[in-house]
Design goal:
The chain is α/β, with parallel strands linked by helices. The chain is built from ten helices and 17 strands. The structure holds pyridoxal-5'-phosphate (PLP). The site of pyridoxal-5'-phosphate has 14 residues, from loops.
Length: 358
């Protein structure tokens, strides 16, 4: 089937570029201390997770317990939930899941650790724990070395749990455009980890893993030699936000196909809006089907995209490729991802964890 025969809006990825991105990541990490534990939030597609394992990933990171369940159900054996599980029912589910795979969760409070320990004991499982360290994002995590060491020691002494490492994700620097500035910030964060690791070792605790990092900091993390796990997710697709960053070895592979449904002087309307495009980051970029950029100001409404002052002729019925502003929030809006080669559809992958937000 031709790409242009898909009903729009449709989520599509250039298969060759997708694979080239996976290979570029494998090459980047070859011979380094840093290993890949890619984030599932970007693709939510178990078939892609398995492709990533084929390109050297040691396991998969995800944000939600239901994503972890989807991954385990597909046969992924090593899963990190890069979040705190505090709901009592979810703690039981996590403890049971830990019997099916090697499960790691993030912890930043003693109460949570004690409840998780009880759930793991009752299930007869072992739940690995990364203590989360807030290195500047102001999201989850403990904020001082003393609190970190104290919590890691408590976890180490609790039945059913194991202190397995440090979770330290600095999403606040993932999209810094300047390569130099991103480098400066990354190295400063790494110094915080070096200092914390020394304290943990001094307290008799082994640091088996330091996990974090994004597509934006992947090259820097590989060179830095401090982190042992890279949680990049967007690198397989990129998007218009990551497309603006300097010095990334990945290319855009993901598009939403849309149809021009109306035109008038200086305005073209596409049949995709926020129900088909993640709009939480930079605006989307519009391309012709041949990949030529169509300049113009973009406004995304519920069901429509308005392109003001488009360069070139656009006619109703014509299809265009839209590079989403944010790949992760876009993928979650679709049931399936079509892989294409030039103008042909090659495969259809189910977004198995679509809507797995619990
Ligand atoms: C915990 C965690 N790790 C890693 C990432 C990096 O993902 P990406 O490479 O898509 O920027 C994110 C992004 O939100 C995240 O929340």
């Amino acid at each position: 089937m031709k790409l242009t025969q898909l009903a729009t809006p449709a989520l599509v990825a250039d298969e060759k570029i997708l694979i080239e991105n996976m290979r570029a990541m494998e090459d980047l990490l070859h011979g380094r201390k840093l290993q890949l534990r890619p984030h599932y939030k970007s693709n939510k597609c178990s078939a892609i997770a398995h492709m990533q394992m084929g390109f050297g990933a040691i396991g998969i990171t995800c944000a939600k317990l239901s994503e972890a369940e989807d991954l385990a159900d597909s046969g992924i054996e090593d899963i990190l939930i890069a979040n705190q599980i505090v709901d009592p029912e979810k703690m039981i589910r996590a403890a049971l899941l830990a019997k099916k795979c090697r499960l790691t969760v993030c912890v930043d409070s003693e109460d949570n650790a004690r409840l998780l320990s009880r759930a793991a004991e009752a299930a007869g499982s072992l739940v690995h724990c990364y203590v989360e360290y807030d290195i500047g994002m102001r999201r989850c995590g403990v904020t001082s070395e003393e609190d970190f060491v104290r919590l890691a020691k408590i976890i180490d002494g609790l039945p059913g749990l194991e202190f397995s490492g440090i979770q330290a994700y600095a999403g606040n620097i993932a999209h810094v455009v300047s390569g130099e500035e991103r480098k400066r910030e990354t190295r400063a964060n790494e110094q915080k980890i070096v200092s914390l690791t020394a304290k943990l070792k001094g307290a008799g605790l082994e640091v088996k893993a330091v996990s974090g990092g994004s597509t934006g900091t992947s090259v820097l993390k590989a060179q830095g030699g401090v982190y042992t796990e890279l949680q990049a997710g967007s690198y397989i697709f990129l998007d218009s936000t990551y497309g603006g960053l300097e010095s990334l070895p990945f290319k855009n592979s993901l598009f939403v196909l849309a149809t021009v449904i109306s035109t008038r002087e200086g305005l073209a309307i596409l049949d995709v809006g926020v129900k088909g495009l993640g709009v939480d980051q930079d605006p989307p970029v519009i391309l012709t089907m041949d990949g030529e950029r169509i300049d113009g100001e973009v406004q995304v409404n519920e069901e429509h995209l308005k392109l003001f002052g488009p360069s070139g002729e656009l006619v109703p019925g014509e299809m265009v490729k839209v590079i989403p502003g944010h790949c992760c929030s876009t993928v979650n809006l679709y049931d399936r991802l079509y892989l294409f080669d030039k103008d042909l559809v090659k495969d259809r992958l189910m977004i198995t964890a679509r809507g797995c937000s619990r």
